[in-house]
Structures are given as structure tokens and as C-alpha cells.
Amino acid sequence: MNEIIQAMMERRSIRCFTNEPVPKALLEDIVTAGTYAASGRNAQGTIIIAVTDQQRRDRLAEENRKIGGWAEGFDPFYGAPAILIVLSDKSRSTALYDGSLVMGNMMLAAHSLGLGSCWIHRAKETFEGAVGQQLLQELGIEGDYEGIGHCAVGYYDGPAPDAPPRKENRVYFAE
Fold first, then answer.
1. What is the number of domains present in the chain?
2. Which of 25, 45, 108, 146 is 20 to 30 A removed from 169 (C-alpha atoms)?
3. What is the domain-level CATH number for residue 88?
């Protein structure tokens, strides 16, 4: 089996990170992999925001916690020190699909670099609200974007979970 398929089979969602910062060079590699994801008509209508500033990261985590309805003090980013946010141009009919492919590329890239990752939802709601809009304004990002996902990235705190058995009757060949 080749190394890419092997990585796809081994990658797991990590929900317990150390607070060790991820080197910028590794984050750049992960983000670059995201920019090479396929997109409808090669429009490349996605953007990625790499958040490593603790204050911004915590502000996003708190907003995500509120949207998710969790108790105060819960960290929906599981302690990850880096959050890579994917947004897609709302005018693209393939916005959700394009952003999802970016997320997938970044999670596989993180795994290949010895880092853990987890897709965290509620980016849509975050960027429809004041906290997300404020972040876009702070960064000088203009345009009409929809939040697709937060990719929590960091070093594992403990072992990666085992893969659950694959469900049967999910693949059909029409030969």
C-alpha cells in the first residue's frame, strides 16, 4: 500500500493536545497542502486563517463553546495551540465541498508531519456572528465568506485512538 493511502487509514481525530506550540514552518506546510485541494472549476475560492495568537484562539474557543451550548470552562478545541480556519466564498455553488476538501488535505498533512488534528464544527455560526466578523476585520479580510470548519492542530497528548472497525455494505461495484 502506498504512503498516502496508509496515511488516510491511520489518521484519527485527536481530542487531547499538549500546549507545545506548533512550529510555523509546519503550519505553513499544512496550510500549503490545504491550498492544493481540488475546487470546483479550480476557482480556489477558499481562504485559510491560521490562528496561533493565544488571545484570538481563546476568543474563538469561547464563541464556539457558547454556540455549542457547553458549560463554561469547556474548550471545544481540546487544548490545541493552533487553529486553522477554512472559509469559502459564498457565491460559489461548490463552497461547502471546496472547503471540506481543504480541511481533509490539512488533516492528512498534519498527520504526515506527526501532528494531531480534529475538525471542529460551528465555523459557519462563528463567522455569521460578531466574533468572526471582528476577526475578519482585524485581519483586513474582505469578501462574503462562509465558515466551513476549524482545524485544531497540535501535538498529541497521549496515544492516537485505534481505528474503529469499518461498517459493512458501504461499497458497491457496478461492473
1. 1
2. 108
3. 3.40.109.10
Q: What is the pLDDT along the chain (175 residues), one digit of tens a residue?
A: 899 999 999 999 999 999 999 999 999 999 999 999 999 999 999 999 999 999 999 999 999 999 999 999 999 999 999 999 999 999 999 999 999 999 999 999 999 999 999 999 999 999 999 999 999 999 999 999 999 999 999 999 999 999 999 999 999 999 9
Three-state DSSP string of 90-108: CCCCCHHHHHHHHHHHHHH
Distance of CA 61 to the CA centre of its chain: 13
Cell of 53: 495568537
For 83, the domain range is 15-120+128-154
* Residue 48 domain-assigned (yes or no): yes
Q: Is residue 72 part of a domain?
A: yes
Give the number of other Cβ atoms within 10 Å of residue 139's Cβ. 12
Domain assignment of residue 44, yes or no: yes
